[in-house]
């Protein structure tokens, strides 16, 4: 298979020494994934990972994934592969591509229970666990967006959670962002996919209008100090985390090149750190040791007594998103969460 000229130019590769072949991967339901292999001057082989897709949906998704990987990698270089660029094929501009470091997941093992099981040696220390890396990510403050004088909630480009292109327009307040850019937004996507639903609409409006201000409102969430936006992965279910390595990258080489806990297929935004935890709880797979280590490093936000309800509120978005994408039983999960939260916090 021939490597497109736009990809060769992006990576500065010699076409005579470069090949591309099919390779398993994830993300967009209609994306194809490939391995690019090139021979270096010293005779070694270097690999890259590429996603391709056709149409506007692919273009939007790859732009968002590039920005997401770049933001995460800048904060914690060993947490995800770095994105090297995205664009359109020179031979077929309707086809978009994304190229990243090649993340070798061969021989991967379960990592979600707690501290990293990668061994240490006299020469190299044990690499940090997923809990520690995620805590580092969630401690990295968001940058100040152009035209603003302080960090805000949102993201500079659209990102896709599954196949859903999300509204990441900036907001100064977290409650406003979550109510408008997540709950009310995804209700619109659900109605477009599944048709009007009076009960669902009423519950989403009650949740966005009453529960969200009550649990996430400024002056309440985080106590007197409040909260600050940090970068989150945004779609961190257990299928988007594993153990792997990237050859030739300092953040992996300093630990002897052994596989480390990594994440991929992100849908990043600048958010409340606990927003990350909703989908992690929804599908499970992260054990008690993981949660214990993570919260030793990132304590639960005040009021701690409302932590479980906040995580359920954040989980709600993913039930609604899955309902918008797939229909079926995800509606009942969303309705159950909203009824409980509205009953508890929706008075007044």
UniProtKB/TrEMBL annotation:
Gene3D superfamilies: 3.90.1200.10
Enzyme nomenclature, EC number: 2.7.1.172
Keywords in alphabetical order: Kinase, Transferase
InterPro entries: Fructo-/Ketosamine-3-kinase (IPR016477), Kinase-like_dom_sf (IPR011009)
Phosphoprotein in keyword set: no
Presence of keyword Protein transport: no
GO molecular function, one term: kinase activity
The reaction(s) this protein catalyses: N(6)-D-ribulosyl-L-lysyl-[protein] + ATP = N(6)-(3-O-phospho-D-ribulosyl)-L-lysyl-[protein] + ADP + H(+)
Region (Disordered): 18-37
Family: Belongs to the fructosamine kinase family.
Name of the protein this chain belongs to: protein-ribulosamine 3-kinase
